[in-house]
Amino acid sequence: MSRHRFRPAALVAGVAALPLVLSACGAGQGEAPAGPEAAQVRIVVSTDAWGSVARAVGGDHVQVDSIIEGMNAVPHGYEATPQDATTVGDAQLILMNGGGYDGFMTGLVDASGSRAPVVDAVEASGLEGVPEAGDRGHEGESPAEHAAHAGEEGADHGSFNEHVWYDPATVQKVAQQLADRLAEIDPPAAQTFRGNAQTIGNDIANLTSKAAEIGRAHPRARVAVTEPVPNYLLDAAGVQDVTPPEFSAAVEEGTDPPAAVVAQMLDLFRTQPSVDALILNTQTQSATTDQVRAAAEQAGVPVIEMSETLPDGAGDYVQWMNGNLDALAEALNR
């Protein structure tokens, strides 16, 4: 599935044109929902990757609605609906990835007039190179295009990798922020929220240790990726991504990489020693990525499939990342 560039101005205008729909949500912005689930805090998240984290922190005390759920959509090309606007307007707590990845959420929050607190994962990450709030680069351009322009102009803030849910440390920080915000909204359950966040912290520590063990077992491992989606996890494992940057940037934008760049990518499987594995983003496949996969399979290089949203059967975030690390270890052990 090719990815189409997100157009924030058009989306905000489209959502803002729904006043009659949004007026029905105003009562929910600062109040707990009525009815049998009155004790549950309503959390709205941009994707089910973060929705899984929110559920783990909130437990039975929260109702989590993910705007994007399943493998059939990615935030870069997502177009918000009137129902999404209603959902965001009713939220008591909002969780978004940030960094330009799920910019449609900013449009929905603005259009709904929601007063719910917002947890922004990129801002919480503390990672180097986080773009300043509101920094969208040239008008109408996407984050990857902004990265290219930033390099041309000598700026140092345009190359940030916004896929921060693949960074275990960021997930732990987001879990703690969620626990703090939930404790403010539902004080009687504060101990539960903070205990759940601590449990997630322990699970994250185990993930980090597991990644480090993979790195120690394969100290010179080299992989290629179709997109930089899993790169924070690779960093945790000490595995080097040797993909030509122009290739992964083009795939991320749903465009065709130049022929010379494609040739560089294919050479990673043809030359000796070849890379140890190819990591394929299953949600942004194209004729070019199919060509790369075929080259890897022909060379006997293992192919690992990773995704941007929670795969079917993954269970929760920790199980998902454990599965990704298991797949990486299996491929490198070959």
Automatic annotation (TrEMBL):
Residues 133-157 have a biased composition (Basic and acidic residues). It holds the Pfam family ZnuA. Gene3D superfamilies: Nitrogenase molybdenum iron protein domain. Keywords: Metal-binding, Signal, Transport. InterPro entries: Bact_metal-bind_prot9 (IPR050492), ZnuA-like (IPR006127). Residues 129-157 are annotated as: Disordered. It comes from the Bacteria. Residues 1-24 form the signal peptide. This is Zinc/manganese transport system substrate-binding protein. It comes from Pseudonocardia saturnea.
